[in-house]
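Researcher: We plan to redesign the surface later, but first we want a full-length starting point. Tokens attached.
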């Protein structure tokens, strides 16, 4: 698996995506949501339960909208760019609030009106970061291995990738309390912002646009030099597969690429019917 250049690149790409996605802070926000709500003044149990439910609903709706519409409408890279940038800005705002207004945890009533509004913005930023996560890393991390891995290694490759996925998820959930103690709470969120910024550069440099590509075209794409695959892969290795070139239209004519391929669907159907009739007559 790792001895073939194109497969090795795809495996390393998928593993890197899992690591960057898990350390971007989204799972930390989900697992320790009640602790983070308390940091912006939501300390009562009823408030925490309600905020947790709202956060879950937002992520649920966002995940389905992204899976069914956005990721194919916008493309993999564009959806990922938007999601990462949006999530980065949300977590950066939350980190800045914790850095500037640390007293919100212990004495929320002492905050000025401006600081109270800022705390509401920080709470909204947590919710919106979930939406951004669904648009970005969450969708791609589960989709990428099924799109790029060749059939001969897909089973074992997907197993390795998902084991790595859950290992990073577990490590992140266990490391966060120590990060919040050693780096302060806002320091942990600055760390997540740094990971997201690194992920943005990674996507631009290493991840090609895969939307609409056939599996047959992946080999040519990932055989390009590693420093060209992400930035110029679609340009240097366009999809020339027959599956991607032939389309059917309402007037029963299949065509693609400005008419380079033209198929009269009605003619094909007539020939098939005539062949069946001839075979029927010969049997009689």
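Model: Full-length starting sequence:
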């Amino acid at each position: 698996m790792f001895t073939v250049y194109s497969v090795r690149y795809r495996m390393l790409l998928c593993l890197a995506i899992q690591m960057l996605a898990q350390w971007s802070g989204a799972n930390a926000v989900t697992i320790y949501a009640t602790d983070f709500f308390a940091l912006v003044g939501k300390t009562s149990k009823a408030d925490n339960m309600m905020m947790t439910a709202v956060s879950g609903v937002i992520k649920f709706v966002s995940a389905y909208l992204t899976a069914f519409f956005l990721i194919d409408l916008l493309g993999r890279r564009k959806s990922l760019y938007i999601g990462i940038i949006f999530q980065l800005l949300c977590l950066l705002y939350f980190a800045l609030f914790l850095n500037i207004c640390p007293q919100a945890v212990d004495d929320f009533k002492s905050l000025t009106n401006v600081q109270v509004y800022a705390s509401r913005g920080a709470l909204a930023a947590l919710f919106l970061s979930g939406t951004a996560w669904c648009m970005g890393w969450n969708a791609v991390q589960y989709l990428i291995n099924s799109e790029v891995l060749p059939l001969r290694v897909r089973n074992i490759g997907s197993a390795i990738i998902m084991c790595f996925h859950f290992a990073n998820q577990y490590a992140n959930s266990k490391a966060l309390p120590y990060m919040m103690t050693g780096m302060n709470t806002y320091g942990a969120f600055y760390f997540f912002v740094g990971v997201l910024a690194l992920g943005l550069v990674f996507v631009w440099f290493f991840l090609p646009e895969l939307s609409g590509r056939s599996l047959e075209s992946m080999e040519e794409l990932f055989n390009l030099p590693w420093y060209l695959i992400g930035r110029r892969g679609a340009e240097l290795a366009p999809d020339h597969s027959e599956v991607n070139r032939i389309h059917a239209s309402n007037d029963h004519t299949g065509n693609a690429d400005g008419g380079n391929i033209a198929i009269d669907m009605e003619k094909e159907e007539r020939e098939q019917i005539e062949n069946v009739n001839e075979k029927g007559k010969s049997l009689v």
